[in-house]
Design brief:
alpha+beta; six-stranded mixed sheet; 17 strands; about 30% strand; disordered N terminus
Length: about 290
Amino acid sequence: MSPTGGGRDIRRLAAHAQPPLDGPPFHEWVLPDGTLWMQFHRTTAGYLLRFPGLADFTVSFSGRDVTAIPVPGVSPQTIDHLYLNQVLPLALSRQCKLVFHASAVEVGGGAVAFMGASGKGKSTLAASFATNGRRFLTDDGLMVEARNGGHQVMPSHPSIRLWLDSKAALIAPDTPTAPALEFTSKSRFLAGDRIAFCDSPRPLRRVYFLGDGSAPAITFQPMKPSEALVELVKHSFLLDIEERAMLAAHFDELSALAGQPNYFRLDYPRRYEELAAVRGAIIEHASQDNDTP
């Protein structure tokens, strides 16, 4: 998933302190605990995305040119992470690509996607499938392309990020990991023999919007296209939320997507010992209109 074909082909400038910027940001991302995560600014050449204390990224209007300016002391691995998981999906939205906060796995030759807010279990579900022989396509930053009258999920970078409890429950001790990052206790685990990865596009078959874990049992609730559209809007990466022409085009594409696959609300008890049953229920549910599970 890259505007330049390699996923890491960004221009990197020498590290320096973040200078003051003219005017307030037009948008901000704030973490659930209230911490400011990212600020969105417009420039004469495009956009500047600021991660306070970590890095600035400039993105051209086309979304095809990205430059990273790290704060002194920030590792190259952190810059890679911010680019792949935050900046690249936003840059792709400037290229009229549909990118969502979602994970996806392969079931029956198709892709099953899991969407939800941070902490709802998207990565844990993807890791649960991938460590049990069902290949994952993306941990987050799910890109969907319209093809042949349907939509396909494009594979992302082959790694999964997990909190310590999910790591302890799902990941074998000798699984290869990426270097640790300065700003998070999450670990990134690399695909390979222990974590199965699908490196080819797969047709989108199902989208499950994850609940809060309050359900006493595994539940699937069908959704109308209008309900799915609202959720797709909420979980979209979109760099400029105020540009009307881009918003109109984005909405049209989301409307077409909402009319294609089957959408369901999925909830289940958030206990690791339940994951095998959850996987089985999802595979059975997602395969009902396929010849093979």
